[in-house]
Inverse folding.
């Protein structure tokens, strides 16, 4: 990958980010307006319309650089993985400070007060960043005023020990192109979310992951796979579990599924796709 990958480069014919001045030609250059995702999750789309393709999802607390606002849409670059696209403007809010905690449960809720009987104001997904102001009973009170169950949060620096175990928690979640939550996610989204929970960086798309994660290892069959290995096909990625099985979000099951590695490799080969590489951290 290069720095000028269009997926990661905030540049159009009429507009580009100020930091690209001298690198890319555009009619205008604009500085970034720093904002954050203020809803549970929001679709990053290829175009400024609700029926445009979803490229990925941005989740609560994620910082974004805004370069253009147009009739309810914001053209942005996500600061986490540098992806560029259009977000609905309603998903954005001001930067309120540095996050202190992240959501460690697959999903949780923000309640308006210190009672689980109150209707929640928002649902949060794994990896969401929040600012905890204080604790009150079983709740962490956010700087924004909401209440989140304390057992669903972890300090920002408290990384998971094993990204494979994180991925396994998503078994049964439906497949969704561009998704990154337990309501739906795709193959590379599963890898990225699991890596993030373990304090590891992963680019968004499978081709980026194949180019940038770990080191290639020789592959002569499913018996060579070790726990945590990433298996790549053109446009697809799976994670080895170290027991002869793999886990992946896939369109065959339309879900995150665990499969026998040899069987899955054969099935995918029959569909016309061979393994392009195996990479190991």
């Amino acid at each position: 990958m290069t720095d000028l990958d269009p997926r990661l480069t905030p540049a159009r014919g009429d507009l580009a980010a100020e930091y690209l001045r001298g690198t890319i030609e555009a009619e205008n250059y604009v500085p970034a307006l720093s904002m954050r995702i203020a809803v549970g999750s929001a679709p990053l789309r290829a175009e400024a319309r609700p029926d445009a393709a979803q490229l990925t999802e941005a989740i609560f607390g994620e910082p974004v650089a805004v370069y253009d606002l147009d009739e309810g849409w914001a053209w942005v670059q996500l600061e986490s993985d540098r992806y560029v696209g259009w977000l609905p403007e309603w998903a954005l809010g001001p930067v309120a400070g540095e996050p202190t905690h992240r959501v460690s449960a697959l999903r949780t809720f923000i309640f308006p007060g210190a009672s689980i009987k109150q209707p929640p104001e928002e649902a949060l997904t794994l990896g969401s960043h929040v600012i905890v102001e204080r604790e009150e009973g079983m709740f962490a009170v956010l700087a924004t005023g909401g209440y989140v169950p304390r057992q669903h949060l972890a300090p920002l620096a408290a990384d998971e020990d094993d990204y494979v175990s994180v991925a396994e928690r998503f078994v049964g979640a439906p497949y969704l192109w561009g998704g990154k939550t337990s309501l739906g996610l795709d193959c590379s989204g599963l890898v990225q979310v699991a890596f993030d929970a373990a304090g590891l960086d992963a680019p968004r798309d499978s081709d980026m992951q194949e180019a940038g994660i770990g080191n290639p290892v020789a592959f002569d069959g499913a018996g060579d796979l070790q726990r945590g290995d990433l298996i790549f096909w053109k446009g697809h990625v799976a994670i080895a579990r170290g027991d002869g099985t793999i886990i992946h979000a896939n369109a065959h099951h339309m879900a995150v599924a665990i499969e026998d590695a040899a069987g899955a490799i054969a099935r995918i080969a029959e569909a016309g796709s061979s393994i392009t590489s195996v990479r190991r951290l």
User: Anything to note?
Assistant: The mean pLDDT is 97.
